[in-house]
Amino acid sequence: MVIMGGIKHDDGKNRWDLLPFDAVEKVVEIYTFGAAEYGENTWQNVEEERYWAALLRHICAARKGEKFDEKSKKLHIAHAAWNCLALIWIELNKTMEDQNGTESN
């Protein structure tokens, strides 16, 4: 059923519909692999520098023409994206900790 003349005020809201969900799914595969390998959400307790190192390793491997990670059999670039998301999460949480007056990572 289509309702004619309806109004939806969504100007200025984030456009989640623009996400390339097939690409996002590849990153979710990395989260799933990691949860099975290391436990759910244990990544939140890893030092920031480890994510920078892993990000650079996966980017380097992809740039050298290696498409898939040997251990996970998943795309190196998806691993790189996952590491970027982990770094964003760390940055956001550092900011929240700083605002709350607690010690940051």
Properties at a glance:
mainly alpha; 105 residues; 3 helices; extended
Tell me about this structure.
There is one protein chain. This protein has a domain of 58 residues. The protein is extended and about 55 Å long. It has 105 residues and is an all-alpha fold. It has 3 helices and no strands. The protein starts with 20 loop residues before the first helix and ends in a 5-residue tail after the last helix. The protein is 56% helix and 0% strand.
Summarize this, please?
With 105 residues, this protein is mostly helical. It is 56% helix and 0% strand. It has a domain of 58 residues.
Question: What is the alpha-carbon Rg in Å?
Answer: 18 Å
What structural category do the secondary elements indicate? Answer: mainly alpha
Number of DSSP helical runs: 3
- How large is the share of residues in beta strands? under 5%
Helix content: 55-70%
Order of helices and strands: HHH
Largest sheet: none
Shape: extended
Uncertain regions spanning at least 5 consecutive residues = none
Would you count the extended β strands for me?
0
Q: If you average the pLDDT, what whole number results? A: 91
The separation of the N and C termini measures 52 Å
Write the layout of secondary structure elements.
Blueprint: H1 21-38, H2 48-63, H3 76-100
Helix pairs in contact: 1-3, 2-3
